Amino acid sequence: MSEAKKATARAHPNIALVKYWGKRDEARILPHQSSLSVTLSPLSIEATVSFEGSADRVEINGKEAHGKERQRVLGLIDSVRKPGGLGPVRVVTRGDFPAAAGLASSAAAFAALAISARAAAGLPRDVRQESILAREGSGSASRSIQGGVCIWRRGDLADGSDSYAEQLVSESHWPELRLLVCVVSDAEKEVSSRDGMRHTVETSPYYEAWVADAEVEVTRAAALIRARDLAALGTLAERNAWRMHATALAADPPVCYLRPSTLAILEQLSPARRRGLPVYFTLDAGPNPVLLTLADHESAVAGIAREAGAKDVVHCTPGGDAVVIDRHLF
Ligand code: PMV
């Protein structure tokens, strides 16, 4: 290992089309099933890590982090600083989109953090190890190290060393694909994805059925992405999102991430398809749907979302790899 220093990285968030929902190991963040996602450009988060000073300092989006948030960041840092014999750290992260609104901000933050922490500790770039480290901060972050479409294989080993994401295709495979994040609420959600999935695993009678078809859905989704078949992929993504939300709705007590404003957008999609518009949705653990379409139909789809009540529509394309950058945040 070379001399400890300061490093900064930038990562995009991702949106899962076959979702991760439930852990078999809470501490290591090992999932019950594999998942598949598309990296989202231009949204991004930067993180600077520097082993310096006399006490740990963690700043997220301009505010000192406390409690669980700070512990999660320092937990990831400990994975590199303990083996490296490194001292106190200063961490600053900054993003260009609202946190905790179902836009996978933690995925981009922990991916940027994993890369910058390893680089600051003098470790060489290694996408597999970065994916594993990012996963230990937030499961979905394992899929934000590389661009394009990534698959996080659940793995079988108890230590998590075979549970990491790999790229299926790069962002240049399907440049016409558009992902429109429809913001109906940017308020922090009441039940985090972490708590929602734990509660679902523990209490939902539908959970086993959810896990049972996930692996084959990943294989099907991968083939449809290779074939650039939006209609079939969109149908699969909608089915997967409904099933994830169905498991949560069947938990006891139920967890409902959908809002009337979410449904107001979703109910426009079947009529739009009947009019010939290719548009499909997916929905993470929050109220903001993400619409899948193609470049030629992007403005028509955004118009439908706004008319149905979206306060903002963020236009995304498949994003590239997370990168180390020279400009530090402090
Ligand atoms: O990694 P977390 O704890 O933010 O969980 C992400 C869960 C979903 O966003 C709902 C699905 C997914 O695969 O990203």
List the helices and strands and how they pair.
Blueprint: E1 6-11, E2 14-18, E3 23-25, E4 30-31, E5 35-41, E6 45-51, E7 57-60, E8 63-64, H1 67-84, E9 89-95, H2 105-120, H3 127-137, E10 149-152, E11 165-169, E12 177-183, H4 193-203, H5 207-226, H6 230-249, H7 260-266, H8 269-274, E13 280-282, E14 290-294, H9 298-307, E15 312-318, E16 323-325
Parallel strand pairs: 7-9
Antiparallel strand pairs: 1-6, 1-16, 2-5, 3-4, 5-10, 5-15, 6-9, 7-8, 10-11, 12-14, 12-15, 13-14
Helix pairs in contact: 1-2, 1-3, 2-3, 5-6
The structure holds (3R)-3-hydroxy-3-methyl-5-(phosphonooxy)pentanoic acid.
(3R)-3-hydroxy-3-methyl-5-(phosphonooxy)pentanoic acid binds at residues 16, 19-21, 35, 104, 106, 138-140, 193-194, 284-285.
